[in-house]
Design brief:
90 residues, five-stranded antiparallel β-sheet, two-stranded antiparallel sheet, 2 helices, globular
Length: 90
C-alpha cells in the first residue's frame, strides 16, 4: 500500500526515526510520552469526505474541516482521518 507516494513501510520507518523510536513497542512499553502532532504535514492532509484542506485546532487537538464543520481527532500524534472518527461541530 502506498500513502503520499511512499510505501507504508518507508513512511512508518521515517516517522519512527523522526521521533527517535526504534519500534512501536518501545513507545508503548517505556512509558514515553506520545509524540505531538507534527503540523508540518498539514499541507499534505485533506478532509477524507470533501478533499479540502484541514485546519489544526491546537486547543482541541483535532483537525477541522471548515467546509462541513467536522473535527477529526489526533491520537498519539496520528491524525484519525477515517470518516467514522469525525465529530460534527456545533
Amino acid at each position: 500500500m502506498r500513502l503520499l507516494g511512499l510505501p507504508m513501510r518507508s513512511l512508518r520507518k521515517s516517522l519512527l526515526q523522526k521521533h527517535h523510536f526504534s519500534s512501536k513497542s518501545e513507545l508503548v512499553h517505556e512509558n514515553v510520552a506520545a509524540p505531538k502532532f507534527d503540523a508540518s504535514i498539514l499541507p499534505l492532509l485533506a478532509c477524507p469526505l470533501t478533499k479540502t484542506p484541514l485546519r489544526y485546532d491546537e486547543a482541541t487537538g483535532s483537525l477541522i474541516s471548515d467546509e462541513i464543520h467536522v473535527a477529526f481527532p489526533i491520537k498519539d500524534g496520528i491524525p484519525m482521518l477515517n470518516p467514522l472518527d469525525g465529530k460534527m461541530l456545533k
